[in-house]
Task: inverse folding
């Protein structure tokens, strides 16, 4: 009698079924296809209708609307080669957010970079700071010759501003560098741009700080195609032209394709001043390009479904300085101060929503020029669960001069409902 052994073989398959992503675009803003299909108020600059035999070189300046209507809800987005799309900042200085119901094709360039400052011809006059890109922060204007802080770097704006204590130079910090000035997370939620660079004296002339790179979110229900690798220019740029930090680029789609580069860094391509790039797709990415810095990505097989906007957005704002309430949309422009205060010790009152009690906060006090050293003062939020939290922090203002006061949370926390 023969004993026959049977072995059961079961074929299994771990399959990646085709997934899709919904950008949430309503399509109410129509298609964005320069130069014919653009939002109202868009300006076309340069050689936008070239004669035969001449090159197309056209800059498309799209105005950003104020919240809550600041998000563009497009159908398709198609930016052809020869077109560079930039954005005019709104008063709230929000990031540029473009949603699409269909596909996004970028054979031209989308540029949310910061600007360079303008040095003065008179050493007793501060320079003009470089403007940050949309959602980014301005550079510093001063110092001026003979001012008390002439041997120091004067700080720019933003959580990682160059010239603040701990940064060690005029260079701003974003993704790396000084641990006391890093901010943000790789997932870019919330989306925030690059900090402004500090200024310094250069042969007795003030060298203003450059603006930080801006922040850009493009989300498509279809495919985002960044164009063929043979094209030399990057598809999307969020750089700082000087001492500011690079900005933030986040792309989300059902699929990502193309091979052109993405850049969010500063002029020296310093690691300490690099921005952040985030690439997310519902299907395995087919993007083959290079990113500076290296992008963080999602894994469609194992990561949770893509969340475009967090269900709860924590906020932190300054509600009063020395008993004076700042305007609803402060400009942070030292030439037209939002608040005028006497040179003394004042209380800065902060209010936060969806932030737990006990969270550490920092107040950044930075003179634009002629006002003494910058400072960072820490405090702690207190309050009841489910209610706004507050903190009152005492800071010493420079005796004279103009400057900026800002607030930031650097430590990780779990948002409250």
Result:
């Amino acid at each position: 009698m023969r004993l026959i052994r049977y072995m059961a073989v079961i074929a299994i398959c771990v399959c990646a079924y085709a997934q899709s992503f919904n950008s949430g675009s309503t399509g109410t803003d129509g298609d964005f296809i320069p130069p014919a299909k653009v939002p109202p108020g868009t300006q076309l600059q340069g050689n936008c209708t070239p004669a035969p035999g001449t090159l197309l070189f056209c800059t498309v300046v799209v105005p950003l609307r104020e919240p809550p209507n600041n998000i563009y809800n497009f159908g398709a987005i198609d930016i052809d080669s020869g077109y560079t799309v930039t954005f005019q900042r709104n008063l709230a200085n929000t990031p540029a957010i473009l949603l699409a119901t269909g596909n996004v094709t970028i054979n031209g360039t989308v540029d949310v970079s910061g600007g360079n400052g303008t040095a003065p011809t008179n050493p007793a006059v501060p320079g003009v700071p470089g403007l940050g890109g949309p959602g980014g922060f301005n550079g510093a204007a001063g110092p001026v010759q003979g001012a008390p802080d002439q041997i120091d770097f004067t700080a720019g704006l933003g959580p990682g501003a160059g010239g603040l204590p701990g940064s060690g130079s005029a260079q701003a910090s974003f993704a790396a560098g000084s641990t006391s000035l890093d901010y943000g997370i790789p997932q870019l939620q919330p989306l925030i741009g690059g900090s402004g660079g500090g200024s310094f004296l250069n042969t007795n002339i003030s060298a203003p700080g450059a603006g930080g790179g801006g922040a850009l979110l493009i989300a498509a229900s279809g495919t985002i195609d960044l164009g063929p690798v043979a094209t030399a220019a990057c598809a999307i740029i969020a750089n700082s032209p000087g001492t500011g930090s690079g900005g933030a680029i986040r792309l989300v789609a059902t699929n990502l394709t193309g091979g052109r580069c993405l850049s969010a860094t500063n002029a020296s391509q310093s690691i300490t001043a690099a921005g952040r790039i985030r690439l997310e797709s519902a299907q395995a990415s087919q993007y083959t390009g290079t990113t500076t810095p290296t992008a963080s990505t999602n894994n469609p097989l194992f990561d949770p479904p893509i969340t475009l906007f967090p269900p709860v957005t924590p906020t932190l704002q300054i509600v009063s300085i020395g008993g004076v309430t700042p305007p609803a949309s402060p400009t942070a422009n030292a030439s037209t101060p939002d608040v005028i205060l006497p040179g003394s010790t004042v209380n800065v009152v902060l209010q936060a929503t969806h932030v737990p009690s006990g969270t550490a906060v920092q107040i950044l006090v930075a003179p634009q020029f002629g006002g003494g050293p910058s400072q960072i003062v820490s405090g702690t939020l207190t309050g009841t669960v489910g209610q706004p939290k507050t903190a009152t922090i005492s800071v010493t203002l420079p005796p004279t001069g103009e400057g900026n006061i800002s607030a930031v949370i650097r430590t990780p926390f779990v948002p409250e409902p």
Remarks:
- The first strand starts at residue 43 and ends at 47.
